[in-house]
Amino acid sequence: MIVVENLHKHFGGFHAVDGASLEIRTGSITGLIGPNGAGKTTLFNVIAGRLPPTSGRVLMDGEDITGLPPHTLFAKGLLRTFQIAHEFGSMTVRENLMMVPAQQSGERLWNAWFHRGRITAEEKRLRDKADEVLDFLTISHIADAKASQISGGQKKLVELGRTMMVDAKIVFLDEVGAGVNRTLLNTIGDAIIRLNQERGYTFCVIEHDMDFIARLCNPVICMAEGKVLAQGTVDEVKNDERVIEAYLGT
Ligand code: ADP
């Protein structure tokens, strides 16, 4: 689905991504690992249209999507999860989900939401959709909670839920497990597997928790110093000498 060809992203003289080439197969849950500073997040940001590359190409289903803005990529079904913005913390979890289609398509929030005196058919449809998403993620009980008051793991589930408000094809998830307890991490893992199997989502996941990666991901790609070092099954990558060296070197 995604082909990255010889991608470079330089910040001044620093090569954060330094000639990375990789593929993400349709229907896979691909893991992206590597020591801190390897260039994983920068690579995600370039693929998702948040940063222009210095050089190189990104293809989606054969089409050159290099440098397209996030809302154009979003319309093609390529999404990168992002944290719930501070200003949406006072809205409920359900409202945060209902916001997504308008927010991402570049519509003005004002038009989309703040003329809310009347319940429109569109609003009802979005509400039903949000409730279905919350049910799928087993978090219906927090639908009316303020987004600022839910736990870190629940926030991650809501971030995942936001991708379900639209027709995503491929979702880029950055460090789902950071600061999340084991039980919720399992719930997040279950949701990713079900979205992959039941809804045909392709995923690319950056994660440091190797148990999580081992449970979900095949293949696993390891980056170091802006380049792809190794790829294969989790066992192949974990036992690759170059990978071991890269981790020991940090
Ligand atoms: P990873 O996600 O693998 O930890 P990052 O992509 O976040 O790696 O960072 C790769 C390197 O690029 C790091 O050394 C980081 O300091 C640097 N870097 C990232 N963003 C910028 C930026 N906007 N300006 C300068 N350097 C950056």
How would you summarize what this structure contains?
With 250 residues, this protein is α/β, with parallel strands linked by helices. 40% of the residues lie in helices and 23% in strands. The model has no long low-confidence stretch (mean pLDDT 89).
Describe the structure.
With 250 residues, the protein is of the alpha/beta class. The protein folds into 2 domains: 1-77 and 168-250, Rossmann fold, CATH 3.40.50.300; 86-166, no CATH class. It contains 10 helices and 10 strands. α6 runs parallel beside α7 (182-199). Bound molecules: adenosine-5'-diphosphate (ADP). Residues 2-250 form the ABC transporter domain. Pfam families: ABC_tran, BCA_ABC_TP_C. It comes from Gemmobacter aquatilis. One of its GO terms (molecular function) is ATP hydrolysis activity.
Using brief descriptors, characterize the structure shown:
binds adenosine-5'-diphosphate; six-stranded mixed sheet; Rossmann fold; alpha/beta; 2 domains; globular; 250 residues; single chain; four-stranded antiparallel sheet; 10 helices
Task: Give the topology, please.
Layout: E1 2-11, E2 14-24, E3 29-33, H1 40-47, E4 55-60, E5 63-64, H2 70-75, E6 78-80, H3 93-104, H4 109-114, H5 121-136, H6 152-164, E7 170-174, H7 182-199, E8 202-206, H8 210-216, E9 220-224, E10 227-232, H9 234-238, H10 241-248
Helix pairs in contact: 3-5, 3-6, 6-7
This protein binds adenosine-5'-diphosphate.
The site of adenosine-5'-diphosphate has 11 residues, from strand 2 and helix 1.
